[in-house]
Amino acid sequence: MTPDQDLDARDLLCPLPVLKARKRLLTMQPGEVLRVWSTDPAAVIDMPHFCAQTGHEYLGATRGDGATAHLIRCVAANHCFMKD
Predict the structure, then answer these.
(1) Cα–Cα–Cα angle for 6, 9, 15, nearest 5°?
(2) How many CB atoms lie within 10 A of CB 32?
(3) How far apart are CA 78 and CA 84, in angstroms?
(4) Most buried among 23, 70, 71, 75, using CB within 10 Å?
């Protein structure tokens, strides 16, 4: 899958990879895919949790280039706020 946008969050620690992903997703159109590169081990837990809380679709993660690439499909820009 070819992402629509890439975000380099390597060498950033929790919660920065998720916060940067949220900020980028706010600028994206529904259906677009964001790839977030992260070296933070907590991101493997944080990214899927963020998507579950905000309604975005977590498409999975792969390892490569010394980092993990997380794929997130934007549902809607206004879905970047946590649900109750």
Answers:
(1) 125
(2) 15
(3) 15
(4) 70
Looking at residue 7, its amino acid is L
Query: Is 14 a residue of the active site?
Result: yes
pTM: 0.91
If you average pLDDT over every residue of the chain, what do you get?
A: 93
- The helices-and-strands tally (H runs, E runs) of the chain is 2, 4
Helix (H, G, I), strand (E, B) or coil at 57: strand
Given the residues 14, 51, 74, 80, the one annotated as active site? 14
Query: 60: buried, middle or exposed (CB in 10 Å: 19+, 13-18, 0-12)?
Result: exposed
